[in-house]
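Sharing a chain and its predicted structure for anyone who wants a worked example. Both blocks are below, sequence first, tokens second.
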Amino acid sequence: MTFRRNLFTNLFPYLLLFIITAIALYITRPVSLQIRWNDETLYYTVAQNIVRHFDFNSNHYLASSIIQKGYPTKDTHLPGYPLILAFGFLIGGINEATPFFVNYLLLVLTIFLIFTVGRFIANQWVGFGASLIYLIYPYTLVLTHSVMTEISATAVIMVVVALLFLQKESFLKGIFLSLAIALAYLIKPFLLTLFPASIAILWIEKNQHYKKTLFSLLFGFAFLFITVLIPLSQNQEIYPYAATIILSQSNLTHMLRMIWENFLFNCTLIINFKKFPVYGTITISMLVLWSITVASTATAIHQKKLQQWEKYLNLSVFSLISFMPALLAFLLLYQYINATRGLAVFSPLMAILSVTGLWLLTPQLKIKKVVAIGLVICLCLSYSNFVTFQLLRQTQKGQFKRLSTNSFRLEKVISKLSIQPQVVISEKNRYLAIAHYPTQVIWQLPQTLQELRQVEKEVSIDLIELKKSDPIFQENLQVYGNVNLLDNRYILQYQNQGFYYYLQK
């Protein structure tokens, strides 16, 4: 009887968290489980290639990348998330619903691990509160209902934290840590910061047999880096990110000027609440959570409670070493529009640290103030979550409409012409690679006839879709004086609603 009671007591928080998570997912569910974001098409097709052919190459290409890099190439994103989706496809079949259920399982895993780590550092109430804070964090639910990398990255981060703080030191622990960090890197390359953060914690704690863990972590990660990470990181598509453009500058002064301009641009995104409410509210959410961590850490140092708060301070060190380099890189080299989504992967750590920090500050602030602060945080996050969710859902609908419209238009043409093209040029037509798999899509047009010839040196093109406003179409009209031939090598086969479709002679 006692065993059953203890079992129920231990399992009840997980069951309750599962029910709350399921309700939240149901309330915020999309109308249908379909690909809606542009990037989702990239992950989906790479995962499908892995399952069908164990091929990590992409089905989406930019004309500029083919000219610079060649063909075929891997996607600009590393294949960590597609690998996870590939396992989902093996179990649930290759369809658009499977990735969503993969994300739902990853969210539940993350929630459970947050609770477990929070209970280990403080108590089960802290773990429960941290789980709820993460659930209402602005990006959590909307990204769970998307085929995007953040939810998987968050789950892997929590696996690393659970291994690092909950497991006893051993060779096996180091091996598992190296596997988890390698997977995190393949999902989000900036999560390589988990490696030095893990080493720092092992060195700080110096538990019994920590050298075994440290040695196996170093050996395991070095082995994986050479045999897996480097090969999978090679031959990637070149995408014109801000960082790609900045770091390609040969003049150091020019590079530093571009970094400074990018930093100022990112600052305007953060402070302009009226024009960019999503980025402003999410920034406030991060600041609120981190401010509690800073206040708690300062209190521990001031009151000389470093030993009593050892677990909390170690997690703080781990989080800061992981988070700060990523934040700095995003502010200086990327655009904050994309950075806020990437930084959301650290939200479980922020949730655990903030709730634990409030609990540790209870003797100084008294319970009423702690509860009040907690409620203010929940209200702030809930408001930010609502604003973010609504705006991103609207953006999602717009992208879905464009994806489906572009794909359906070309699918009708392919059917009408009775062809099975392997490579198609069609601007911003990313979904066609899913709807008409295994067709490959060059979704960024060559800008000139010369660029078209350069692309053709690398890959044979079966079908080209152009419209009157495209620069290459206008150049062809000026050079050849008619629309019936493209570069005197492609014949116009069909024309409809301002679009022109060319096949090779």
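Comments welcome. Residues 362-417 form the longest helix (56 residues).
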